[in-house]
Amino acid sequence: MSAPFSLDRPNSYIGRSVSRPNAKRLLEGKGRYVTDLSLPRMLHAAFVRSPYAHGRILSLDTAEAATLAGVRAVLTGADLAKICTPWVGTLEHFKNMKSLPQLPLAVEKVLWSGHPVVIIVADSRAIAEDAAELVMMEVEELPAVSDPFEALSKCAELISPELGDNLCFSSQIDSGGVDDAFEAAAVEVGQDFIFGRHTAVTLEPRAIVADYDSSENRLTAHHATQTPYQFQDVYARHYGIPDGNVRVIAPDIGGSFGMKLHVYHEEMAVVGASVLLGRPVKYVADRMEAFTSDIHARDHRVHARLAVAADGKITAMDVDDITAVGAFSSYPRTSVVEGNQVVRLMGAPYDFSSYRAQLSVVFQNKVQTSQYRAVGHPIACAVTECLVDSAARRLGLDPFDIRARNLIPDDSYPRQSPTGYQFEQLSHEVCLSRLKTLMDYDELRRAQAKLRERGVLRGIGIALFVEITNPGPAFYGVGGARISAQDGAIIKLTPSGDVHCAISVTEQGQGTETIIGQIVADQLGVARETVRVMTGDTDTTPHGGATWACRGAGIGGETALQAARRLKANLLSIAAIILQGNALSLDIRDGWIVNADDGQQRFSLPELARIAFFRSDTLPAGTQAQLSVAHHFAPQGYPFAFTNGAQGCLVEVDAETGFVKVLKHWVVEDCGRIINPLLVDEQIRGGVVQGLGAAFFEECLYNQDGQLTNGSLADYLVPMACEMPDIVIAHVETPTRDTELGAKGCGEAGTAAASAAAMNAVNDALAGRGAEIAQIPMTPARVLRALGAI
User: Fold this and answer.
1) pLDDT(473) > 80
2) Is the pLDDT assigned to residue 710 strictly greater than 70?
3) Mapping DSSP to helix (H, G, I), strand (E, B) and coil, where does residue 473 land?
4) pLDDT tens figures, 435-469
5) Which of 529, 555, 595, 738 could in theory staple to 637 by disulfide, Cβ–Cβ 3.0 to 4.6 A?
6) Residue 614 included in any domain
7) Contacts of 617 (CB under 8 A, 6+ apart)
8) CATH number of the domain residue 589 falls in
9) How confident is the model at residue 4 (pLDDT cuts 50, 70, 90)?
């Protein structure tokens, strides 16, 4: 490794807490969001949506809407189908997967309540909404398929008769020996789990301004997305525009959590409207539209059981997961990835070999579900960890003790899980031990016992997790999706001696620009303040995968590190020519060319830039000063860089009201090399809050007719500051050997196990009353029902 990672070096930033360069701008309200954008001749879009979850469109009368003053176009599904090719949300390596072709607007049938049918384009959003009220739509309502079990029944209404049934995808895993292990088990524990739908509720809703220039056949899309290169490809292919003529600009993004990387009907319709009208068209989803059109997440029904020997050793696990995904599989990443990760992450921390799983992904007349922060992790973690706690109670073992007996030993890697995942190196034993110390666990138990004597229901829960990060080419590319596994960086020295880095990983609030700047500054030997990082523009940054699945640091960071090292070598080579010396005897520190051995300053980087840019005539003939470097990197080793950790939760349950108060939460996390401890802690805390939101508050509720009944922030509960506990964080560092940087992801770690730890804590509190809960969110009514109070 050409440069050690030590905070004792000059310009050492890797491992240091550095504040975000854009923090002050954002805090002062100077963010640059798509919502703020106003272009010349810009029009605004609104949609007419289906009031029914399932129905056949009999007629559409748009004549009156089209005559309203200020309306520039009223477009139906048939209008856009003429210029947009349909898309299908399947991947080739999911062999039996199927989904209906999709178009921007419904053409013959509506498949969920809120399905867009007509787009109105007008001089203002208000006019477009007024015109939407004038569209007369006649729909023959059909029976809605709402319940996932009902969807699989032989007599179920078929959402898409051409597909033959309501099964999107199914798969099985069987490592062998499961039945024998259960037959020999001293204890068998099982449970039926229900995980409710929830959605992202980002601070900034989905937003796009599509600007098509017919004179150049060029599309510019200002898009609130975390994956601009993916959308460059989607818009180019489906609207027949050359890829190089499509520019996608992702400015400041007010949160995404995975929700903003899917293809939505509204955005595709807005692009189509701009192509037909030759004018910019803007659409910003309002909050109620977000609830009925943003992807939802989770929605699982899981039956699982665990076989355990008399000494507490886990011998086998058997899982059946039914995942409900809405009317379509999302595009281009599909809606089966979450279910697939659920069944493959089950039991991940534990040392057993017999595993069997059945996955059924089913259609229903609801909003699509797809990838959302910690895809599949919370379900797999909650099922596994709750069963482990159940086994501990049956055997009279402490929750820490039973886990210590079953963890994959830290010295046993590399190894393969019974579900087929390849683990390079994890640290379960260290994390579990550190969590116990961090929580002061024995004292918590003593305090709990005293409170129980007074009738106070206090509970302690723990959960271990494994997180998927740094996905490689086998994740999407192998399935035919044009989603890059590599990232690119262009780093250059400017004439003033500053450094510019254009990189393909994107920023949506997690600090990507900060850590990339730290890595570049660290490797070049310059002050962080002199490095400017640019992201989110397909015309000015190199093509890459962008930010998803916690790949920003592990893949984007490695890209920046390697590019910075190449540029540094170029700069030292030029300096050696100027000094008539040897590049190996030189270094860059604090923005100066120095002697490597004694640190004596020779000349500054601005002086090197001045000579190279403006006085190249003073350099020897044939010298080509390369002050810019373009570099791409894709992981070549393990398919993923798995991270791991442990979480603990302390709660108090009010037996009279069913309310649960979270008193404190602990996280021990191993994300490999830590680049910025401050940002890692921010990511973990934010993830924990989202996990606790799912555990106690957030749920998209539907009636039997497929109507969303709580589609507003007046009814859909999100965690507020007053509900959140102190979150105590500690770290373990096990760098991946797949990269020189050694970083893994951390953005989903908090969400992965928070709800599992919370559920175990609630069940620990309820154990003295002989009660147990296995449904998330754990609402007061469900807690009271578990207690037999209602």
Assistant:
1) no
2) yes
3) coil
4) 999 999 999 999 999 999 999 999 999 999 999 99
5) 738
6) yes
7) none
8) 3.30.365.10
9) low
φ/ψ (deg, to 5) at 492: -140, 150
Query: Is 272 within 8 Å of 239 (Cβ atoms)?
Result: yes
DSSP 138: E
Alpha-carbon distance 624 to 618, whole Å?
12
Domain stop point among 226, 254, 283 = 283
Q: What percent of the chain has pLDDT over 90?
A: 95
Does the pTM of the predicted model rise above 0.90?
yes
Give me the count of residues in the chain: 790
Residue type, 94: F
Q: Is there a single domain that holds both residue 461 and residue 498?
A: no
Residue 759 pairs with which residues in a beta bridge? none
Structural domain of 715 = 376-470+640-786
Q: Is residue 197 within 8 Å of residue 368, measured between CB atoms? A: no
Reply yes or no on whether the pLDDT at 176 is more than 60. yes
The burial of 23, by beta-carbon neighbours within 10 Å (0-12 exposed, 13-18 middle, 19 or more buried), is given as exposed
In a domain, 350, yes or no: no
Q: Same domain, yes or no, for 536 and 670? A: no
Q: Domain count for the chain, please give it.
A: 3
Token output for 142: 């059909």
In this structure, are 74 and 218 located in the same domain?
A: yes
pLDDT (mean) for 655-682? 97
Q: Considering just the CA atoms, what is the radius of gyration of the chain in Å? A: 28
Concatenated DSSP letters of 418-462: TTSPEES---HHHHHHHHHHHHTHHHHHHHHHHHHHTT-EEEEEE
Residue 507 Cα distances to 500, 511, 551, angstroms = 16, 7, 12
Task: Output the pLDDT for position 1.
Answer: 36
Same domain for 507 and 450?
no
Regarding whether 556 and 534 lie in a shared domain, the answer is yes
Judge if 545 and 612 occupy the same domain.
Answer: yes
Report the distance separating Cα 237 and Cα 152, nearest Å. 34
Residue 376: which region, alpha, beta or left (left: phi > 0; alpha: psi -120 to 50)? Answer: left
Whether residues 627 and 667 share a domain: the answer is no
726-762 pLDDT tens trace: 999 999 999 999 999 999 999 999 999 999 999 999 9
Average pLDDT rounded to a whole number, residues 102-112 = 98
* pLDDT for residue 74 is more than 60: yes
**In the listed set 605, 633, 661, which residue is the last one of a domain according to the structure?**
633
State both tokens at 609.
Answer: 């830039």
Same domain? 677 vs 762: yes
Tokens of 80: 């856009």
Helix (H) or strand (E) holding 34: none
Give me the torsion for CA of 566, 571, 574, 575, rounded to 10°: -140
End-to-end CA distance of the chain: 64
HEC letters along 230-284: HHHHHHHHHHCCCHHHEEEECCCCCCCCCHHHCCCHHHHHHHHHHHHHCCCEEEE
Residue 581, both tokens:
């010396």
- Residue 161 is assigned to a structural domain of this protein: no
Is residue 549 within 8 A of residue 471, CB to CB? The reply is yes
- How many DSSP H helices and E strands does the chain contain? 20, 31
Residue 180 inside a domain? The answer is no
Q: Is 676 a residue whose pLDDT tops 60?
A: yes
